[in-house]
Amino acid sequence: MAEHDRIFRKEALDYQAGAKEQGSVLRLSPSWTRWGFWLLLAVVGFYVAFGIFGWISQYATGPAVVRMEDRLEVTALSAGRVTSVEVHPGQRVKEGQILARFFAGPEQASLERYEHEFELLLMQRMRDLTNEAVSQALNSLRAEMELARFQLEQRLVRAPHAGVVSDVRIRRGQHLTEGEMVVALVQEDSPMQVIAMLPGGSRPLLAKGGTMRLELEGFKYQYQELIIDQVGDALVGPEEVRRYLGPELAESLTVNGAVVLVRAHAPSRFFEADGKRLAYFDGMLGTVDARVKSERILLTIIPGLKTLFH
């Protein structure tokens, strides 16, 4: 065969014919790729196992307010101007004790006039016991006096029962309308209640005895664990929530859509925050997280697999 008809050079053919064993495979990849592959495989295996055996919880989140149980709001019986406030927060009061006085100039003047007329008629009656006209006038005037005393009493705000003044909402000279809050009374050592407003869609998953976590405003990441005492039977809207909270808190909370009211007792009147023991106060606001369900992470990522596990 001519030299120019050969595919391989003569030197290459001679080397191939004389070689006794093959050389090693030429390694072009850096050495770290070997252990990097096994590390990546281990990480993938860990996450696959975590997805199969791990669980994830879902929570219902909403605003909450701390209220004192047995809290009674004492309101004005009639409209008028406050002339004096007789109590202060933290003061113990007895049943019937005067809490505040309203301006009662006309009522006081009417009563004094009736009393003066009554005394004059009574003197006439004593002079002539047979005068029936005077007797009838006395009976009529006595009824007018009772009405005047009742109207004068309406200008006073009294404690309906014994307790401790927790809040005073009025000041001297302030004009109040009928039904407006004057003071709030609580029983001494009244327990604290947390009222949460959670999304209405979570109502079927909430039950008495469940747990929820409270984070008070101003105490970030300081969580208080609570046991649910009561779950509302019906959903309520934003307007109903505002009526329930009252005018003093209605504007402090924002509720969107239907919610369910969930109640829980605080284990004590104090909570721990940053290593300090602090007291709850009526009206404190916060956020509540209530766990509604738990499921495997894999089922959350691939919902279609739920039929295999149920």
Name its key features:
310 residues; alpha+beta; Elongation Factor Tu (Ef-tu), domain 3; OB fold (Dihydrolipoamide Acetyltransferase, E2P); 2 domains; four-stranded antiparallel beta sheet
Helix content bin: 25-40%
Protein structure class: alpha+beta
Spans of at least 5 consecutive residues with low confidence: none
SSE order, as H and E? HHEEEEEHHEEEEEEEHEEEEHH
InterPro entries: BSH_CzcB-like, MFP
Organism: Cystobacter fuscus (strain ATCC 25194 / DSM 2262 / NBRC 100088 / M29)
Keywords: Membrane, Transmembrane, Transmembrane helix
Domain CzcB-like barrel-sandwich hybrid: 73-184
Report on the structure:
The chain is of the alpha+beta class and 310 residues long. It folds into two domains: 56-70 and 190-309, Efflux pump adaptor protein, beta barrel domain (Elongation Factor Tu (Ef-tu), domain 3, Beta Barrel), CATH 2.40.30; 72-186, Beta Barrel (OB fold (Dihydrolipoamide Acetyltransferase, E2P)). 30% of the residues lie in helices and 32% in strands. It has helices at residues 10-18, 32-53, 105-127, 132-153, 238-245, 297-301, 306-309, and strands spanning 55-68, 72-75, 80-85, 92-93, 98-102, 156-158, 163-168, 175-176, 181-186, 192-199, 211-216, 223-231, 259-265, 270-273, 276-279, 285-296. The protein has a six-stranded antiparallel β-barrel with strand order 1-10-13-12-11-16. Strand 14 and strand 15 form a beta hairpin. Helix 3 runs antiparallel to helix 4 (132-153). The radius of gyration is 41 Å and the shape is rod-shaped. It starts with 9 loop residues before the first helix and ends with a helix. The mean pLDDT is 83.
